[in-house]
Amino acid sequence: AREKLAEGAVLLRGFALDCEVDLLAAIQAITTVSPFRRMATPGGHVMSVAMTNCGQAGWVTDRTGYHYDATDPETGKPWHPMPESFMALAVFAATEAGYCRFRPDTCLINRYEPGAKLSLHQDRNEREFAHPIVSVSLGLPATFQFGGLRRADPIRKYALRHGDVAVWGGPSRLCHHGVLALKEGAHPKLGRMRLNLTFRGAL
Ligand code: MD3
Ligand code: FE
């Protein structure tokens, strides 16, 4: 099922269900190299969402700002390479949404436990906004907020569930978005947790 959310933005319900087992095994390998950690923002808050990355670079934040780094500042080592199953899913989903030339160079993995949230923001640390972002939701459901180019634009809410994939490109690439505080619950495969993968062309 392909649902158009906005110009350039497509929701593919259940698109990742077929490769769930491969994705979870890959996440295990990635977090063995670079464990999930809660990072500090330039404002001095510690994020409620825990993060790690794989690929040629990873998104990191500290008191000095946000950036992509080829090495994990926690380990001093490169991030785990992008697994083949990750790349295949991202390319397939992007193609399905009309972005057949997309090849991500990094994937940010977000881990939400009940109560964790991501405030309304834009993703603008990537060099080239011409690339779409592909996002994959796993585990507990979350309420996703999707706004407009201006922070004050009206916001629509969507439930994102285990296996849902969304592609955000073109005129939607710089739209504001966020995730409401995760509700208490337990997913049959992942337990008290939601994972979100965002594939990006950052370099
Ligand atoms: C719409 N992650 O990592 S994914 C993020 O569920 C992030 O963890 C959320 O926002 C999460 O930056 C939302 C959906 C998403 C990702 C990027 C977008 C929606 C987007 C970029 C532009 C517009
Ligand atoms: Fe974002």
From TrEMBL:
Protein name, entry field: Alkylated DNA repair protein AlkB
Xref: PROSITE patterns: FE2OG_OXY
InterPro entries tied to this protein: Alkb (IPR004574), AlkB-like (IPR027450), AlkB-like_sf (IPR037151), Oxoglu/Fe-dep_dioxygenase_dom (IPR005123)
Gene (name only): alkB
Binding annotation for Fe cation: 121, 123, 177
Transmembrane segments: none
Cofactor: Fe(2+)
Source organism phylogeny: Bacteria, Pseudomonadati, Pseudomonadota, Alphaproteobacteria, Hyphomonadales
Keywords on record: Dioxygenase, Iron, Metal-binding, Oxidoreductase
